[in-house]
Write a structure and sequence with these properties.
320 residues, mainly beta, Thrombin, subunit H, tm1086 (SG structure) fold, 6-stranded mixed β-sheet, 6-stranded antiparallel barrel
Length: 320
Amino acid sequence: MNGPGDVANPGGRSTQNGSATQGASTPPNRLATNEADLIAISVAGQVAHPGFPGLPAEPYRLAADGSPFLLPTYGGIVYNVSVGDRAFGWAADCVHPGVSIRLPDDNQNRGLNVFACIGNRARVVTGDAAGSTGFVTGKSGRFSEQVIVHLPREARTRMAVGDQVLVRAEGAGLKLTDHAGVSMKSIDPRLLAALPAQEENGRVAFGVVARVPAHLAGAGLGLTSEGGSLHIQSTDRALLAELDIDRLRLGDLVAFEDTDSRYNHGHLRGATAIGVVCTTDGPRAGYGPGVAILMTAPAGQLGSFEEPGTNLAGLLGLEG
């Protein structure tokens, strides 16, 4: 996690020791994959308008203590929250950093949500920001089913709801050739190659900023792991502080202990799921920062080790 010597900018980004960009200095790993066999295909979505569920009729939601609140939530163009910023402390309910895209047709949107992978390149193709490029950095699940795209802040100021974003989707079907027991989930092969990794005795481990105990896995349990996110429950603030989880940043890699995400997210002793923090915290019970799962294994084939600063901002060289 970030140390006491960190210097943060107004957006909450750390710029020195333990910063969100520290992982950029990690040399590429040499994990063998089937990257040469993967298909690269186009998927696209429109910038989604923020919305509220139809029921209850009033727009208020309930916090963990039963108090009503009205805060920005998923969808839209978020101008002042980006990958690398703090995940906690915003006046928000699981907001997506950057730009959220989806399609009005549910079947087509499912294709977007499943085939778009974290680390895929994205390009704005309509509107005043056409030609601007970025990366897929997250997904949100049930009730929103959106793909989260990082674009430079300047480009976001020129975008509008409804603008179309094209994604070069590549990563579905990715496998670790020497680690058949590890299932890859929604990760671009180039991002995989950039992750800090260690192989020993037939096991592979990846660098993470924090480990999340299984009892903190929240919303998303029981749902598919091919799209969407698994939330870190954040009601127990004392425990989060004890584990340094309350210092996580958007884009940090984390490992869920005793969690099997091969098909649906669920508890399994000895299993591990590793993912990237892709949404902010929120006040609802069972919710917190959402994590898009990148890989998982059921029986000790996948491990993790502490690697401060392992964050998409540095791994992908994100601008702004």
